[in-house]
């Protein structure tokens, strides 16, 4: 059985310029906030994701899709450029306490062999990290996920995202990102997808120092995500993170959030989102060339 390697999801430069369209209820909320008629129908999300895949995939080394809204449609419509790999989200989001994602489990309905037959190269797992929840349980879940991927020749991408503790109100996000990386940064996955320190704000030296602290904890290649970062700051964040040791990005919002809910999505994705993704890919290549 052939096993995919990280080269299968990178640009020729060896850097990652990957697009995420696997947002689920979060994307529905974005459409609602942009004034789309509510409730926002599933089809609205599916159409947006498939259009994004068709228009933006030539400029992405890989694209992350979700089973709920677009994996099947992306495959059936052959939406991805040949040069763009497919990653499938294998996390099931469990709502609770008034939020769309209160906890996460491995999605048992994702069939890794089918993913592979359909051209998928990797699976992705969101891991919610709270300081007062059981570390052993998280590590077990990641271990099971890695096993599932590797037994099927797929790459394993984990995405630890920090949340305030269940009890108490003390929450130091920056420290939590480091603590999560210390716990999960050597867990045997192929790639670590992480929140950018300081939400990409502050001076370049401050950002670099925070990113270097993070790099020290992660014993595998890592990329940053764009949720929570002002999209204007994201290109700098990619450049700083890569200076500190990151290998690129896996991001959605910094590329397409500004066109959510606008009329003529296809034109907007072409005119607004595509140049953003292109520029980010160039930054990745420039930073890889310096190594």
TrEMBL record:
- Give yes or no: UniProt keyword Ribonucleoprotein: no
**InterPro entries, alphabetized:** Aldolase_TIM, DeoC/FbaB/LacD_aldolase, LacD_aldolase, SFP_aldolase_YihT
One of the entry's Gene Ontology molecular-function terms is: 6-deoxy-6-sulfofructose-1-phosphate aldolase activity
Reactions listed under catalytic activity: 6-deoxy-6-sulfo-D-fructose 1-phosphate = (2S)-3-sulfolactaldehyde + dihydroxyacetone phosphate
Q: Which GO terms describe its biological process?
A: 6-sulfoquinovose(1-) catabolic process
EC? 4.1.2.57
**Which residues does UniProt mark as catalytic?**
193
- Name the Pfam families on file: DeoC (PF01791)
**Coiled-coil regions listed in the entry:** none
Q: Does the keyword Lyase apply?
A: yes
Keywords from the UniProt entry: Carbohydrate metabolism, Lyase, Schiff base
The subunit structure is: Homotetramer.
Family of the protein in this entry: Belongs to the aldolase LacD family.
Q: What does this protein do?
A: Cleaves 6-deoxy-6-sulfo-D-fructose 1-phosphate (SFP) to form dihydroxyacetone phosphate (DHAP) and 3-sulfolactaldehyde (SLA).
Query: What is the designated name of this protein?
Result: Sulfofructosephosphate aldolase
Source species of the chain? Buttiauxella agrestis ATCC 33320
């Amino acid at each position: 059985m052939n096993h995919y390697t990280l080269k299968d999801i990178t640009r020729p430069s060896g850097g990652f310029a990957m697009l995420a369209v696997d947002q689920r209820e979060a994307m529905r909320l974005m459409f609602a906030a942009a004034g789309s008629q509510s409730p926002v129908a599933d089809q609205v999300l599916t159409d947006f994701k498939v259009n994004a895949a068709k228009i933006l995939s030539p400029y992405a080394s890989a694209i992350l899709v979700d089973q709920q809204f677009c994996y099947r449609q992306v495959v059936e419509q052959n939406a991805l450029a040949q040069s763009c790999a497919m990653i499938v989200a294998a996390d099931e989001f469990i709502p609770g306490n008034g939020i769309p994602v209160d906890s996460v489990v491995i999605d048992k309905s994702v069939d890794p062999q089918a993913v592979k037959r359909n051209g998928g190269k990797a699976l992705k797992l969101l891991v919610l990290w709270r300081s007062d929840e059981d570390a052993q349980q998280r590590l077990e879940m990641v271990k099971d996920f890695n096993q599932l991927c590797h037994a099927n020749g797929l790459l394993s991408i984990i995405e630890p995202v920090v949340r305030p503790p269940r009890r108490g109100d003390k929450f130091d996000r920056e420290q939590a990102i480091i603590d999560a990386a210390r716990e999960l940064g050597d867990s045997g996955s192929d790639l670590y997808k992480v929140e950018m320190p300081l939400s990409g704000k502050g001076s370049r030296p401050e950002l670099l120092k925070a990113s270097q602290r993070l790099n020290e904890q992660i014993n595998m290649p890592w990329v940053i995500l764009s949720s929570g970062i002002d999209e204007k700051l994201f290109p700098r964040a990619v450049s700083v993170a890569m200076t500190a040791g990151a290998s690129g990005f896996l991001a959605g919002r910094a590329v397409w959030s500004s066109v959510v809910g606008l009329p003529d999505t296809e034109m907007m994705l072409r005119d607004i989102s595509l140049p953003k993704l292109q520029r980010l890919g160039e930054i990745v290549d420039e930073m890889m060339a310096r190594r």
